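We both want to read discrete structure tokens more fluently, so let's practise on a single case. Would you write everything just below, so we can both look at the same thing?
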Amino acid sequence: MGKRKLYKNDRSIRLRDNNYSEQLPSLDLSAFPLIDDFQITLIGRGNLGMHLYYFSQSLNRKIASFPWWDNADKDISIMCISDIPLGTLRNPFIDGEQSWQILIWEKRDYVYIMQGDDPCCTEFHIWFRVRKEKYLAEWDKMINNFK
């Protein structure tokens, strides 16, 4: 997997503002590309420890990341499935740091992921969906690797 750049969509999603609980329900969720071969992987980053990435084998690249989550393996070793990054349409999981932000939420049978370049951003270059069953199974597998 190496140092390949992250997947990016051909066009960005732009929101009017960063009030995500109001903006996300207006999105056309059917337009989000489906990643059927979604995987979660950990990659070592030297003295920063392991970092977590979402990956697609068919795209042969990382599709989203948590660049400020140093030593993710240590946190995952004490997690349970209720601790995974997952919110709802009206209350999405939000994480952000310098030059990065991710939103993750579920609706019906899918988990939607959007990644932008700044905290509280309104433009997202990375956006896709995963079957909820697959998302949960991948997280369950990752958590159980440390039990």
